[in-house]
């Protein structure tokens, strides 16, 4: 029986910036033709890990291979087999879409004819043919991200690193990028995705690794991670913030779990395994204690719930600059 070597494998990666330990024995494995979502709070080590795997940084310890080559000792071979799309577009907005792709083709040592041919292929693949000869500054946000992805595919890389690819994009543009990523993966590309949008990871990732303080603290499929919290989640929104502690105690007693409390939204939530019985018991307890409820719901756990349980914080969907400062430290 033949076995397929992982497209990305990292073992015990360590990286320190002065007194800060950015990576503390990070382990990762990504199967060929799959998407791994790398999640974690700002400063958890995600960007440092991507920088090492793309040969932009050298690790202080451990080792990693990408596409079968060691990132430290075979960096040149790794670079010819990967693509990287960061948080900001790498395109020149003065140039047209076609000119951008031809320019990057030439930078990758393609002949003028080969660069033009590759540009035409990528314009069609990424749905940009009609806008090929327009200046990129006139593109929508989604079109710019698609062009940026196309640029990273000039050399048809086997492995693509997407570092916060839809930061600042509106929902329509994000879905355009998701569609392109799905098409690439269907064609055999391996993707490592870092994102602060947990719905994005839920939509795209085959597996998810949650990173905190420089190491992986949980790994599994999205459904496996969500199943850790139970089959359902009970959510309460109270009318009076002063009753939050009392409501939290009732929910904890019924669920047998430590509730998540959001004082700003007057919300209490906790996982439950017996949907109807648990909800009935919670409501009965609240009524007996005269706790006024504005809203109550039963829902399936989300990756945000998993993230909160594992890291003690909600995922940030704004500027992830705190994580990127690791590289410059």
List the helices and strands and how they pair.
Elements: E1 8-17, E2 20-30, E3 35-39, H1 46-53, E4 61-66, E5 69-70, H2 75-79, E6 82-85, H3 97-107, H4 112-125, H5 141-152, E7 159-163, H6 171-186, E8 190-194, H7 198-204, E9 207-212, E10 215-220, H8 222-227, E11 232-238, H9 244-255, E12 260-262, E13 267-272, H10 275-288, E14 293-299, H11 303-311, H12 321-328
Parallel strand pairs: 3-8, 3-9, 6-7, 7-8
Antiparallel strand pairs: 1-2, 1-4, 4-5, 9-10, 11-13, 11-14, 12-13
Report on this structure.
This protein is α/β, with parallel strands linked by helices. The chain folds into 2 domains: 8-225, 3-Layer(aba) Sandwich (Rossmann fold); 231-300, Alpha-Beta Plaits (2-Layer Sandwich). 37% of the residues lie in helices and 25% in strands. It contains 12 helices and 14 strands. It has helices spanning 46-53, 75-79, 97-107, 112-125, 141-152, 171-186, 198-204, 222-227, 244-255, 275-288, 303-311, 321-328; strands at residues 8-17, 20-30, 35-39, 61-66, 69-70, 82-85, 159-163, 190-194, 207-212, 215-220, 232-238, 260-262, 267-272, 293-299. A 6-stranded mixed β-sheet has the order 6-7-8-3-9-10, with helices on both faces. Strand 4 and strand 5 (69-70) form a beta hairpin. Helix 3 packs across helix 4, helix 5 runs parallel beside helix 6 (171-186) and helix 9 runs antiparallel to helix 10. The chain is elongated and about 80 Å long. The chain starts with 7 loop residues before the first strand and ends with a helix. 42% of the residues are buried. Belongs to the ABC transporter superfamily. Drug exporter-1 (DrugE1) (TC 3.A.1.105) family. Pfam families: ABC_tran, DrrA1-3_C. It comes from Conexibacter stalactiti. This is ATP-binding cassette domain-containing protein. It is a peripheral membrane protein.
């Amino acid at each position: 029986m033949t076995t397929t070597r992982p497209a990305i494998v990292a073992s015990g990666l360590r990286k320190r910036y002065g007194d800060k330990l950015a990576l503390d024995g990070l382990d990762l494995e990504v199967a060929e033709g799959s998407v791994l979502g790398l999640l974690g709070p700002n400063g958890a080590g995600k960007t440092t890990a991507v920088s090492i795997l793309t040969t932009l940084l050298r690790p202080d310890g451990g080792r990693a291979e990408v596409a079968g080559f060691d990132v430290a000792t075979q960096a040149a071979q790794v670079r010819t087999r990967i693509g990287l799309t960061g948080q900001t577009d790498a395109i020149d907005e003065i140039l047209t879409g076609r000119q951008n792709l031809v320019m990057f083709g030439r930078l990758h040592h393609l002949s003028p004819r080969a660069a033009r041919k590759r540009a035409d292929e990528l314009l069609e693949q990424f749905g940009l043919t009609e806008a090929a000869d327009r200046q990129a500054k006139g593109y929508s946000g989604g079109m710019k991200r698609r062009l940026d992805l196309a640029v990273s595919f000039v050399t048809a890389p086997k492995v693509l690193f997407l570092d916060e690819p839809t930061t600042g994009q509106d929902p329509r543009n994000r879905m355009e990028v998701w569609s392109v990523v799905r098409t690439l993966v269907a064609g055999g590309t391996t993707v490592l995705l870092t994102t602060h949008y947990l719905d994005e990871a839920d939509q795209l990732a085959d597996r998810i690794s949650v990173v905190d303080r420089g190491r992986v603290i949980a790994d599994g499929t999205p459904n496996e991670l969500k199943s850790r919290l139970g089959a359902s989640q009970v959510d309460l929104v109270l009318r009076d913030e002063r009753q939050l502690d009392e409501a939290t105690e009732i929910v904890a007693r019924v669920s047998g779990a430590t509730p998540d409390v959001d004082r700003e939204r007057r919300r209490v939530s906790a996982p439950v395994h017996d949907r109807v019985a648990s909800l009935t018991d919670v409501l009965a307890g609240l009524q007996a204690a005269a706790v006024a409820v504005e809203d109550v719901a039963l829902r399936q756990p989300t990756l945000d719930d998993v993230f909160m349980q594992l890291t003690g914080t909600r995922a940030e969907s704004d500027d992830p600059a705190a994580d990127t400062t690791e590289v410059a430290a």
